[in-house]
Amino acid sequence: MQPSRRTVLAAFAAMPLIGAAPAGRNRVVLLGTKGGPTPTPLRSEPATLIDLDGRAWVVDCGNGVANQLAKARMPLDRLARIFVTHNHSDHVADVGNLIEIAWSSGLKTPVTVHGPPPIRQIVRDQLAALAYDVEARIREEGRVPLAPLVSVDERAEPGLVVRDGGTMVTSALVDHETIKPAFAYRFDTPGRSIVLSGDTRYSDALVRLAKGADLLIHEAIYGPMIERMAGENAATLADHLRRSHTLAEQAGLVAARAGVKKLVLSHLVPGAGVSDAMWIAAVRKNFAGPVVVGRDLMEV
């Protein structure tokens, strides 16, 4: 006897959501570990998930972040906060897209975007570009209005960003050449302290922010590759890369001076052609503690 359609639908409804994160477990997942906006098949653009008891806090939103969240088994309707370190395209290209895709995937709860100016305008303009789709889905699918769910906390000064559910988020200004302001963030959760550097050259402010942290996720550039990456614009671009990013050995110095328990290298430049052993050897010039070379979808 074949089961009825109603029985089949009920069985599917009773199944656990595919990709759902385990309840009550806090995770940090590297969604994208490549620096820069040029797509590659090896690494995705910068984004990190902090999963706090099933609520998704996302730091930076490079291209493709929604797909990476799905691969990390994080339901998009649990998106709660987005933290933007700075407004380069590889960090904000999908801020509006992520919010709209989360909403069209069932989000009914508020989302707050935190970041430096002009993040308010960026969010507004990206969502405006999606207004036709939003209006259609409200009309055709009966979805709740999106605009009332979205708020933007735009700030130019460092300090306390938010307290929420036992987690405190603070920021420090870092130095990303002409991109100002640019932030690093520290998340003091009930379980551990997590610091993300954002894009920066070596920064004493970041050292202070990261003091005693359990986990430091720091950008890194591999010095011996700079001239090769610069290509025909070598004189200008090589100088820019040195002024606006942190050499792997300098990331080790930040970790050592801050006394962090573990260093994770992410936002890797270049995203290919440097082995894990090469990255770690550079860090070891200054830091003797645990070091991880980040990979997309790695839990740290």
What does this structure look like?
This protein is α/β, with parallel strands linked by helices and 300 residues long. The protein has a single domain, classed as Ribonuclease Z/Hydroxyacylglutathione hydrolase-like (Metallo-beta-lactamase, Chain A, 4-Layer Sandwich). It is built from eleven helices and 14 strands. The strands form two sheets. The chain has a seven-stranded mixed β-sheet. The chain has a seven-stranded mixed β-sheet with strand order 7-8-9-10-11-12-13.
Reconstruct the topology from this structure.
Layout: H1 5-14, E1 27-32, E2 47-52, E3 55-59, H2 65-71, E4 79-83, H3 89-92, H4 95-104, E5 111-115, H5 119-129, H6 131-141, E6 150-154, E7 159-164, E8 167-176, E9 179-188, E10 193-196, H7 204-209, E11 215-221, H8 226-230, H9 234-244, H10 248-258, E12 263-269, H11 276-283, E13 291-293, E14 298-299
Parallel strand pairs: 3-4, 4-5, 5-6, 10-11, 11-12, 12-13
Antiparallel strand pairs: 1-2, 1-14, 2-3, 7-8, 8-9, 9-10
Helix pairs in contact: 4-5, 10-11
Structural domain tally? 1
Helix-strand sequence: HEEEHEHHEHHEEEEEHEHHHEHEE
Architecture (CATH level 2) name:
4-Layer Sandwich
The CATH class: Alpha Beta
Can you tag this structure with a few keywords?
globular; Metallo-beta-lactamase, Chain A; 31% helix; alpha/beta; 7-stranded mixed β-sheet; 300 residues; 27% strand; 11 helices
Task: Write a short abstract of this structure.
With 300 residues, this protein is of the alpha/beta class.
